[in-house]
Design a protein that fits this description.
single chain; about 290 residues; alpha/beta; Rossmann fold; Elongation Factor Tu (Ef-tu), domain 3; seven-stranded mixed β-sheet; 10 helices; 13 strands
Length: about 290
Amino acid sequence: MTQRPVISLTDCADPNALARQSARIAALFGSTPSILPLTGPDPEGVAALTLLDLLRATDLVGGPTQPTVVLVNIAPRDGHWPNGVPFCYFRHGGHLVISTLNPRVLAPLRTWFGLEEVQVTDVREVVEAAAEQWAELAPEQVEEIVRTQFRSLWYVPLLARWLVDGRPVPAQPQPVPVADHEAEPVRVAVVDNFGNCKLDRPAAAVLGRTGPDGLRLRRRHDGGAVQVRGFDRLPDVPRGEPGITTGSSGVGFAELVVRGGSAAELFGLREGDLLPQLTALASHQLT
């Protein structure tokens, strides 16, 4: 059995769910997975940037890398699908990614990595094909996997195992959605443990929107407006001042920082917040 490291990003993140997923993935792959719980206010945004970062983290190594498996589960029950949004898969640089078919998570991969197509699976079709051809699953077991609401536990690890083993998993190709980044507002994608706000766009694109004077943001504690300028790197920002820099995430994505402090704390920001709205609000405060 081929062993591969497994990294899982999931919004099924209570301790019970994480324990069950860890046990099942470990049993199937022979190693304990790394599981990132997505429990904040905007799990889609965190998943999108983190998936970019995970795949980017395998570059700049000076030689071949070991293939990994990345699982992404952001699956709201919105009533559009019979039992939740489908799961799809694709490969990038030898790494296997299985994800819910979530446009907001997948669209950045087209923009920054050139991913044009994913393979969409149907749970019943895949599990029934497995039971007929290679898996020891009784009809009642197939039905249990197909009908479960916890598909990221019962289905996704099996799908990953079967794909790694080269099984003929049935799937249908579907284009990755195109994102209109020029028309979309800039968001806070991730707030790190230092309070730096990782944005969802390259620094050049963000600074191009702000103009030469930067942007105005409102302080959380007193509502006063602060001018935030652009800098090349965090060490270039004057100590104690805010700035927009080229951060460590994405492909040169921007970060809103406070040198020696917390941008999230200063401006009252959290994951999913929109920068253009905050800028307009702060500008209104100054007039």
